[in-house]
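Renewal narrative, Specific Aim 1. Our central claim is that a sequence can be written position by position from structural information alone. The example that follows is taken directly from our test logs and has not been curated for this report. It begins with the structure tokens describing the chain, in the order in which they were read.
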């Protein structure tokens, strides 16, 4: 089928694109919000350069290059930071997805393949903590207060399960009913809705389960969300937000004397690294993290490579040849 030139501007395709992400692609609400945020910056840039009504067929490779220069050199986050290569790629991936959507609708536009992602340094790919750093962070919240107990429980659950922040914030109290058996030595299985609305299983250690029990017993409310904002005055919106958890974890890391940036995803990386350090294979870690493709899990080669070296040193008999 021949492509058609649209008289509708690119910015007017963003909402239909987000509907497509929800209905046809089955992407999570969190992913849709991120796409909207990333594409809104592109629209803002188009406005700043006098191209607010740019049509899909008018978009050129030069536009893309100028936009890449903008997000790499000019744009700053609300905190005043330049975007990392990884963050720049998020904005480019969203734009590439929009162009793919237009192509599926037989609308003439720049091919999505024309948008090349920024190359990342290997060390930018992953950040994780030593287990001693985790222990120090866990000691920061004052568990004698409702907020402190909640925060300690959140971090315990993160490190026990390797959950994504979107998965953790979506949890509800009624999903914890299995903890009522008070078995202090049992590892619990819990089915959750993961990325892309795929059902996956996470595991809750006996230690994390005990913290969850203590936290739930302290709750004097009938709110649905597992983790709530105690200070929220909106009775219909008590669920703790990802942003609140990010700020809490960053604060605990700072107070624990950790100099590098720590996010909920850092705890997820630390969970995976700890599994591999204790002998788990990469394919099992893939399943535990809910990665669709093992290639995603291969960012943890910093662990597997070291283990392979240790195995080589321990079992390879090359040095024995000189004695023969």
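The sequence written for that structure reads:
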């Amino acid at each position: 089928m021949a492509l058609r030139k649209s008289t509708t501007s690119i910015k007017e395709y963003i909402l239909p694109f987000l509907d497509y992400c929800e209905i046809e692609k089955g992407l999570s609400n969190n992913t849709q919000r991120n796409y909207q945020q990333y594409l809104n910056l592109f629209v803002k840039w188009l406005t700043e350069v006098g191209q607010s009504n740019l049509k899909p067929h008018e978009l050129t490779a030069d536009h893309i290059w100028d936009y890449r220069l903008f997000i790499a050199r000019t744009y700053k986050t609300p905190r005043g930071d330049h975007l990392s290569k990884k963050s720049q790629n998020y904005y480019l991936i969203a734009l590439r997805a929009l162009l793919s959507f237009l192509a599926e609708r037989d609308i003439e536009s720049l091919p999505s393949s024309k948008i090349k992602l920024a190359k990342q340094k290997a060390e930018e790919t992953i950040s994780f903590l030593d287990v001693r750093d985790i222990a120090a962070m866990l000691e920061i919240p004052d568990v004698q207060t409702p907020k402190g107990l909640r925060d300690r429980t959140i971090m315990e659950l993160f490190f026990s399960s390797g959950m994504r922040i979107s998965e953790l914030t979506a949890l509800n109290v009624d999903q914890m009913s299995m903890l009522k058996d008070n078995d202090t030595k049992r590892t619990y299985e819990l089915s959750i809705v993961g990325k892309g609305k795929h059902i996956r299983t996470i595991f809750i250690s006996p230690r994390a389960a005990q913290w969850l029990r203590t936290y739930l017993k302290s709750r004097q409310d009938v709110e649905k969300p597992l983790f709530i904002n105690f200070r929220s005055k909106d009775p219909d919106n008590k669920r703790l937000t990802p942003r609140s958890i990010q700020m809490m974890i960053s604060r605990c890391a700072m107070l624990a004397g950790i100099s590098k940036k720590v996010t909920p995803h850092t705890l997820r990386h630390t969970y995976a690294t700890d599994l591999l350090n204790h002998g788990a294979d990469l394919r099992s870690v893939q399943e535990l993290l809910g990665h669709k493709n093992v290639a995603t899990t291969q960012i943890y080669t910093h662990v597997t490579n070291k283990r392979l070296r240790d195995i080589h040193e321990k079992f390879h008999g090359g040095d024995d040849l000189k004695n023969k």
